[in-house]
Amino acid sequence: MTAKPNLKMRSWLFAPGDSEKKMAKAADGCADIVIFDLEDAVAPEKKAEARGLIHDFLGRYSGDRARLWVRVNPLDGPYTLEDLAAVMPAKPGGIMLPKAYTRADIEALDHYLSALEVANGIEQGSTPVIMLLTETAESMFHAGNFKGAPRLVAMTWGAEDLADALGASSNTRSDGEYDFTFEMARSLCLLGASTAGVPAIETIQSDFRDLEKLKLRAEMVRRQGYRGMLAIHPAQVDVINEAFTPSAEEIAKAREIVALFEANPGAGTIGHEGGMLDRPHLSRALQLLAQVEG
Q1: How far is CA 135 from the centre of its chain?
Q2: What distance in Å separates the CA atoms of residue 68 and residue 79, rounded to the nearest whole number?
Q3: Residue percentage of the chain with pLDDT more than 90
Q4: Which one of 88, 163, 224, 260 has the fewest CB atoms closer than 10 angstroms to its CB?
Q5: Which residues form the HpcH/HpaI aldolase/citrate lyase domain (predicted)?
Q6: CATH 3.20.20.60 fits 11-245, yes or no
Q7: pTM of the model
């Protein structure tokens, strides 16, 4: 299995692959990972041009190429192999696979990437993958089947394509929050990512102007266990980065909990500040520290 890249994964910013200007702006910004999009953001008649633009941009980029990823088209369509053949010689940092149905899709992508890595002098198995889950109804039933899947380093989910797959006229309630089925998709992604041992990444907020709503949503899903969020506009990146960065107070509290258990080896529970700390508290403290300290 591919080793997880030594990258922060808080913010994942999409940039359309047919716009050199937008790709440059995204790459020069503060997003932890930039995703050059060959799927939804590019019309069929412009995909060939976009492949060339992404290849050339990656080839001349002088910064950290490991943070520049590419979203290819779905495996059940006609474009995926052309996408991969065009961009892999330029050594993208990683690949996003949309509309995955089952583990077999990840395994098929692994075979394609292995062949292209060998052909282009890239270390075999070194190109990581983030998978877009829940964009099809079928995928919802396979969310827990990705433990040990090759190359998989993160999982995210989609609400717009799922609505399309279901024939739903909307995926939200009158208050703007997701309907039950889409909240379930979010939960399945989180559970699936936890089972696979990879970070769960929250889906986009399409209204990029409402940064206060974005902040509240990012903070909410972080409390639930999500570790990052997709972005569709550079204005969203700073909000997402801040929301998914543990505060100084949280870090200090986590270190205090770890120190208490280190001072009481073998203890299952420890009284602290009028309450009880147990091993799950220690585990959560260690996970939080791992986010900031590695």
Answers
A1: 14
A2: 20
A3: 80
A4: 224
A5: 10-234
A6: yes
A7: 0.89
Which pLDDT score, from 0 to 100, does residue 7 have?
Answer: 84
Q: How far, in Å, CA of 199 to CA of 225, rounded?
A: 9
Q: Is 161 annotated as a binding residue?
A: yes
Residue 135 marked in a binding site: yes
State yes or no: pLDDT of 15 exceeds 90: yes
Per-residue model confidence as pLDDT tens digits over 50-78: 999 999 999 999 999 999 999 999 999 99
> How many C-alpha atoms does 5 have within 13 Å on its Cβ side?
25
- Which residue do the tokens 């910064």 mark? 63
Domain residue spans of the chain: 11-245, 249-293
| CA dihedral for 148, 149, 152, 154, sign (positive or negative) | negative
